Amino acid sequence: MKRASRRLATAVSLALTAVLLPLGISPVAAAPPPAGQAAEGHGTCTATTPGSDLARQGTARTCVKERPVTSEDLARIRTRTAAIPGSAAAPLDDVDPGDDPDASPEALCTSSKRQDVVSNRHAYCMRHGIVYVLENRAGEPIGTAELLVTARSALDPKSVQWQENIAVYAGKYDGVSAVRLALSSSCTACIPGPPAWGGGAIELRAGEVDQSGHLSYETTTRGGGERSRSMIAYQSQTESPDAEYPVISYGQWAGPSVACDGQVGSTPGCIATDNLARVVLSKSQYGASAVAYEWAQNNLSDNNAMGTAKRPLTRDGDKARAKSRSYYTCKAPPKPFAADPTVVNDECDEFPFARTRQGGTIGSMCAEIIPRYVGGGAWRVDVVRDEPVAPCIRAHVPSDQNQNAGRSVGRQVQSERILQGEAYQVVITP
Questions:
Q1: Do residues 78 and 58 lie in contact, with contact meaning Cβ atoms separated by under 8 Å?
Q2: pTM for this entry
Q3: What is the DSSP code string of 250-304?
Q4: Which of 34, 48, 176, 370 has its CA 20 to 30 A from that of 424?
Q5: Which of 100, 136, 140, 96 is nearest to 114 (CA)?
């Protein structure tokens, strides 16, 4: 594979009008193609130079068109991804990586979902198909080259910077020997780094792959309670190395959305948007507390089984309100919590949590339970008081398990960047 040594003849600025107007975001004007090269009425096409080799071969214009990701594309991505250590590209228990909240960026690229961007809370992959087309004067294709561009990234919830790894896959070529591609990006509420490949172009022939590109970003959001949403867009420049004069076709498309804030914890950071936050607690680590929360989700009525994806909790980090909610659930009359002598260092543990808008129900309305470990990783739950259609539970839990579970929830609020008033799911694992 050859790499073009010259830099591109024309730099594309923020060509976002067609991409971002449907999203309600003000576009930035793009620099127009060189004078005389715009092919009026042909969209993303560029006219060839009269008398050039391409023109003499019958090419009136070169165009860039979009195409969907195909099963052949995914097969090639999976083959490449499988060679990356620790990428976990294979589906987890037949779950599409796009539905796996813990999938790596590499695994997300292999998702069968028919969409350009696949993401979870902490990673994303953009896949975009390009068809480079040579057209005659009648608008008929006389040469095509298919490319697939992917950009994958893992987001650090404690950093305002992130980087994309770029891979370009060359597919079927017909009547085109090679294609040069340059790629840059732009974004709202963030500062993009330099174009991929240092602003130059890569040259690809049919069946080749280039995985050496990178794009980087830094949000303008810092501390002080700021929050922002960055919309990323990509700009491509495609040309044939067979032409003695540059004939560049331009493309642009929308990419992922990244949310950054300085509201959670002491360090600003970023997550991918449009993905429900999760707090994960294991029974092996948090014992009776995790068992109690799981029992609540499985045994309260459908309308009261909170903390699920269907009925998530809503964070309220106000300490005074949390203290008040804890009092009403655990200490308020007419039925205040009374320690059970069979539970060591018994402490009241409530669900929904006190630091959620759903917490704070008067304890006399809650079901009351005692989770008991019976050995071999197994638990049983004794129901002390079964209130009809209870909207909550309070559990008899050893103090250390209650406190450790609470601290874990607090840490995950920060690592998931769960904002005040944001919904989240509680997931209990073995």
A1: no
A2: 0.86
A3: EEEEEEEEEEEESSSSSS-EEEESSS-EEEEEEHHHHHHHHHHHHHHHHHS-TTT
A4: 370
A5: 96
